[in-house]
Every structure is written in C-alpha cells, then in structure tokens.
Amino acid sequence: MKVMSYTSEEPTHMDNDQARGVAGRVAIGKNDGANHFCMRVFEVAPGGYTPKHAHDWEHEIFIHAGEGEVFGNGDWNPVMGGDVVFVPPGEEHQLRNTGETTFVFACLIPSGIPEL
Amino acid sequence: MKVMSYTSEEPTHMDNDQARGVAGRVAIGKNDGANHFCMRVFEVAPGGYTPKHAHDWEHEIFIHAGEGEVFGNGDWNPVMGGDVVFVPPGEEHQLRNTGETTFVFACLIPSGIPEL
C-alpha cells in the first residue's frame, strides 16, 4: 500500500501558450503497479488555466480545493471542492482558477497514455 | 460533460457488522459512459469505518476532507485532505474516521465489478 500526500511528488510546471500556473503530479501510476488507470493531481495558481483541448480518452475529475470553472458543453461551469467532472473521450475541455487561492483537483485517466 | 457535486447522488448507507456510519455514492460510472474505471465518493461519520477486507482489484483513493486512518502494511496510517492511497489488488485494507467531522474520500475502481 502506498500512503502519502500528493505534494510529496515533485511537480511538473506548465507555463506556456496553452497553460498557465499549473503544477501537475502523478500521484498513483504505473510505477506503483497501477495497471488500469492513473491519478494525477493538479494545482492551478490564481489566474491560471489548463490547456483547452480534446483527446481520445476520458477524464474523471474530483475537485479538492479552491474555486474554478470547467469549460464544457459550450460554456464555463463553476466548480468547488466536492464537485466531480466527467469529460467523455473527444470532448473539448479546460479548467481555470477563478478564485484567490490555489485550485486543486485530481484528474484520472486510463492507463496506456502518457501519465502527465 | 457531467459536472455536479457528489452530494447530488442519492447515498447508499452502510451500517452493519462490517461497516459503520458510511454513505457511499457512485459519482462517475458506467451510467455516465465511463468504461474504464469508476469514481465512488464515501462519507464516513465520526466513529465510523469501512469494512476490513481484501479483493482482486485495486483502489486509488484521494482523501478530500476530515481526518482518518487507513489500515495497510500491517498498521494504521493517518490520512487527511490531499493524501492519496493506492491499495494493490489482494491487499487487506480498511478506512476509519478518527476526527470529529465527516471523513470524505474518493475511491476509484476498475470497471467490470460492482460499482458500490
């Protein structure tokens, strides 16, 4: 069994044309023997956002902390701690921090694609 | 895209010889078109606990709120919001609330087994 804070992992920072203020970590993945799906945890700084994109695999997202919005179904949807988001394969999506604290969410993907 | 609070789903309550004070919900599952893995969210009341058991599939757990402990590796391990737990297939495990507020965690399993 692996038990740890997600912050124990070294973050990968994303600051470019597509994403701003994002720190991503693989919390549970193939290196742990997780062979079916992978848990990543993302922190988005105030004013930050993830890329707006679509891909062939789904996301299952659990919002942990902070305030943000998820783009989907043609609009921005407000989310906060305790909210869940299912992004089906092929659907365009993006998350952004609309609050003044760090926006934190777990985002899970199937195995077999890049984990981060 | 599905966006909601996990509390929007009707809970299934577990109070028996094996579990105490547990409310479980399928937040994202096969009814949403999630074909690879399933997100359940559990609330455990103060003094409550999940069953101590083992099974052939893994758990990927994200602790959201409250204070608790996870049994694994032969001992009880304290956990709080932002902690993650990977329970490999076959490993005995149990979670319990050791605090005075509701202990909340997302627990994901592969598809193809009962979702709750």
Overview features:
3-stranded antiparallel sheet; mainly beta; homodimer; globular
Describe the protein's architecture and organization.
2 copies of one chain form a homodimer. Chain A is mostly beta strands. Chain A has strands at 2-5, 12-14, 20-28, 37-49, 59-65, 67-72, 75-80, 83-87, 94-97, 103-110. Chain A has a domain at 11-55. The model of chain A has no long low-confidence stretch (mean pLDDT 97). Chain A is 0% helix and 56% strand. In chain A, strand 2 (12-14) and strand 3 (20-28) form a beta hairpin. Chain A is globular. The A-B interface holds A 1-7, 27-28, 32-37, 39, 41, 58, 60, 62, 64-65, 70, 72-73, 77, 79, 81-88, 91, 93, 104, 106, 108, 110 and B 1-7, 27-28, 32-37, 39, 41, 58, 60, 62, 64-65, 70, 72-73, 77, 79, 81-88, 91, 93, 104, 106, 108, 110. Strand 8 of chain A pairs antiparallel with strand 1 of chain B, so a sheet runs across the interface.
Topology, element by element:
The structure is a homodimer of 116-residue chains.
Chain A: E1 2-5, E2 12-14, E3 20-28, E4 37-49, E5 59-65, E6 67-72, E7 75-80, E8 83-87, E9 94-97, E10 103-110
Antiparallel strand pairs in A: 2-3, 3-4, 4-10, 5-8, 5-10, 6-7, 6-9
